Amino acid sequence: MSYTYLRFHVTFSTKDRQPIIRLEWKDELFRYIGGIIRRERGRLLTADGVADHIHLYLSSRADQSVADLTGRVKANSSGWMHSRWENARGFYWQEEYAAFTVSPGDEKRVIEYIKNQVKHHERIDFKTEFRQLLEEHGIEIDERYIWK
User: Fold this and answer.
1) Is the terminal CB of the chain with fewer CB neighbours within 10 Å at N or C?
2) What is the DSSP letter of 64?
3) Which residues have a Cβ under 8 Å from the Cβ of 70 and sit 6 or more positions away?
4) Whether 94 contacts 14, CB under 8 Å
């Protein structure tokens, strides 16, 4: 028997950070993403976002990479968006994403951070937030690729 605690804060934007995610889509979108993660034997613990990006807090199984899980979430949810809402035909996720491990001691802080995305983005845009998250986690930013 293996015992793991694999929790991740994952964030990614819409293609070219287009503000296309409508408020009325969010609940259904996050339920659908939760279903994708459950099919992969993980759990969506909380999610929120604004018109141009989302944040997910999720658990993952030990034999799956965060890259594979994120790729499945993005591919399946964008296809579903196209079929679910006629005015979402131009909806796509940006190729890039960021993922951060979350320790049990930081879990409450991360959940609150994600739940407060709408309020948070009254003060700060996604580009600034993304840079701050990368810097906070000690990830070096390569200016050649960050906003391609």
Assistant:
1) N
2) S
3) 10, 12, 97, 99
4) yes
CATH number of 7-136: 3.30.70.1290
Name the residue ranges covered by the structural domains of the chain.
7-136
Nearest to 55 by CA among 29, 75, 24: 29
Q: Are strands 53-59 and 43-50 parallel, antiparallel or unpaired?
A: antiparallel
- What whole-number distance in Å separates Cα of residue 17 and Cα of residue 57? 20
DSSP state of 86: G
User: Over the stretch 51-86, which tens digit does the pLDDT of each residue have?
Assistant: 999 999 999 999 999 999 999 999 999 999 988 888
Long-range contacts at 105-109 (CB < 8 A, ≥ 24 apart): 107/7
**Angle, helices 66-84/23-39, rounded to nearest 10 degrees:** 130
